[in-house]
Amino acid sequence: MAYTYQYPRPAVTADCVVVTKGTDPQVLLIERGDEPFKGCWAIPGGFLNIDETTEQCALRELEEETGLKLDKVFQVGAYSKVDRDPRGRTITVAYLAIVDAPIPATGQDDAARARWFPINHLPTLAFDHAEIMADSLMLFKTHFNCD
Known about the structure:
Blueprint: E1 11-20, E2 26-32, E3 41-42, E4 45-47, H1 54-66, E5 74-79, E6 90-99, E7 111-118, H2 129-143
Parallel strand pairs: 1-6
Antiparallel strand pairs: 1-4, 2-3, 2-7, 5-6
């Protein structure tokens, strides 16, 4: 089936913030293996396939980049600033996953490595991931009664 559109279309991505429960929560980040932001820390995520939902994309990208296979996420929100991705117009839908404790994770696919960080000692993040992280941690603290 062929489609013709008068207007350009943005790309869609999904990101997955994974946070641990407990008195000293940690969050899983990946070190980007490719440009843009090669070598910088980021939230696991990537581009939506044509045959999946954003939730499926977030879970797939999490598994592809870290090896973690989860099945439950909560939508944090959509992020659509025009310049959020230097590769072009990209809108992302962010999700939050909560696990009991850090799960062994390794950088895979386009992630050079994966590492757990205390939520109070996060590195500088790529893209607009600091904003996504702040919103995700607010959701985590307010709706899941975790400090």
